[in-house]
Amino acid sequence: MLCRCRSALSIYSATSSCSLGLPLERALGRVVTERPQDAEAVFGSIVDRARQELQLPDNIIEKTLRDAVRWGVETEDEDKEEILDEFLRRILPPSLTNYLP
Question: Is the N or the C terminus of the chain less surrounded, counting Cβ atoms within 10 Å?
């Protein structure tokens, strides 16, 4: 799935993200909501692979993960985006948090 993302990047702007698909988005959402203690390791592994194997730029990785988590977390909390952004600031590598709002 991420390989298709890389090939499509040439047509997207630097602020684009890649769609990971709803099943993967939901899986990441479950990591955040049900296994937050594992989130740093899971997201760190995803970031490492996206950098090394796909050579994706950090801003694309960050936006892709942020969008995936927002779609994957099923909640009606009106502060959802702020809560998730703060959570991602705490678990993502510092080089990626520069792109968070």
Answer: C
